[in-house]
Amino acid sequence: AERGRNVKLREAGLTWHVVDDDVIVLDLDGSVYLQLNGSGRVLWEMLTDPRTAADLTAALVDRYGIERQRADADVADFVAELERRGLLAN
């Protein structure tokens, strides 16, 4: 994902809820079930509003104290996975 481009979860056909420390995602259109915890949950909840990759990276660095380079890679992988599953707004 480009650092300056906004990414956001799509709204239609997507439902999710928090169970303990996890986020449980149901994609009603694609019949996809996804369970996220840790940094995945943090990023998912941020994506209810438009965010840039830089926003997401900064959140991981602040929350977990990891290096920016690692956070960048984690964010890129996470966003790419959501895109692959069709869970992001166009």
Offer a quick outline of the entry.
This protein has 90 residues and is an alpha+beta fold. It has helices spanning 39-46, 53-64, 68-84; strands at 6-7, 14-19, 22-27, 32-36, 51-52. The protein has a three-stranded antiparallel beta sheet. The protein has a two-stranded antiparallel sheet with strand order 1-5.
Architecture blueprint of SSEs:
Blueprint: E1 6-7, E2 14-19, E3 22-27, E4 32-36, H1 39-46, E5 51-52, H2 53-64, H3 68-84
Antiparallel strand pairs: 1-5, 2-3, 3-4
Helix pairs in contact: 1-2, 2-3
The string of secondary-structure elements, in order, is EEEEHEHH
Radius of gyration (CA) equals 13 Å
Helix content: 40-55%
Tell me, what's the shape?
globular
Low-confidence regions = none
Give the oligomer, counting copies of the same chain as homo and different chains as hetero.
single chain
| Ends distance | 13 Å
Q: Write down how many β-strands occur, each being a DSSP E stretch of 2 or more residues.
A: 5
Largest sheet: 3 strands, antiparallel
Question: What class would the helix/strand composition place it in?
Answer: alpha+beta
State the helix count: 3
Strand order of the largest sheet: 2-3-4
Overall mean pLDDT: 92
- What percentage of amino acids are in beta strands? 15-25%
